[in-house]
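Justification of resources, computational component.

The compute hours requested in this renewal are based largely on the per-chain cost of generating structure records like the one below. Each record pairs the submitted sequence with a full structure-token output. That output is archived, and it is also reused by downstream analysis tasks.
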Amino acid sequence: MRKRYDVVVIGSGLGGLAAAAILSKNGKKVVVIEKNNYPGGYAVSFKRGNFEFDVSCHLINKLSQGRNNVLDELGIGGKIKFVKPKYLYRSIFPGYDLQFPQAGSEGFVKVLVKHFPSEKRNIYKFIKLTDGVFADLKKTSNPRMSGDILRLFRYASVSCSEVFDSFFSDYKLKAIIGQLYGFLGLPLSQLSFLHFCAVFSDYINNGGYYIKGGGISLVNSLKEECDVNGVDFKFSSEVNKVIIVNGQARGVLTSDSSKFISGAVISNIDASYTFNNLIGRDRLDDQTKRKLRWLKPSISAFCVFLGLNENIHDLLPEDHLIFLNPDYDSGKQYEAAIKNDFSNTKLIL
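The structure output for this chain reads:
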């Protein structure tokens, strides 16, 4: 079988579905190739008895009212219902049990100052910096706005630990502020401060939301938009090779020997596998090879799905995201996670 498309999308995770929906809405002929027999990647759910579990979608940022996002661009923002819990998250350390309300920077600072009053001035200065860096990052992505480029360059190659150390001496306070490091895949000593600000400040200032009905609700809405716009889906089919013509991706070959010719290819799967296996290292330039050598697998997670014979809202009426930390050392926790040492890494409920 041989078909022609404007774009081939490999993988139907949220990124692949969103790309296909946007392209098809703009008149492009698109096919999505998925090795599973269903769309969604990790953003799916499954049932066991009377329980339904969301596999991966959790607290989502970038959804505050009035902000443009891909859902609004596709015209499906109104179809997705979001729930904003009272607290952003609960952070438990030895000797500390903190709930951070969804009340912007001031609410976050208020909790910290209550427990670390001697650090009040530095806490305010630190939050002012993170908010400023976050604002600069947003502006640089908008050609009509200009951020403080010098400030971004100043922190471009600086780790969270370096910045934290310049503001605070209390190691407990630094660990509590850096709690979200686990979502970013690196300990504070290795985590880019710019990357941290992009996520930390967005959650703190703009809030976190849950998708009503779970991640599958978002998947279904994106899939429906793709269907309306004529996107073709080929399930239970794995891409074996990206077709390269004169240095450009021009289609793919699949496991059943089907060929899909296209003007462009979007890969929504692992970058290392895409370049090393589907394209082939012999087709890569030296710069791309060097970048691939720098890539390292990110931190993963061991997930346990529990169905309880108790009403969870009675047990934890206001807590929807809880971090349980065995200590204050993110580096130690990170190494324990890499080694599957569950007694020394943190748990997320």
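The chain is about 40% helix and 20% strand. Residues 120-140 form the longest helix (21 residues).
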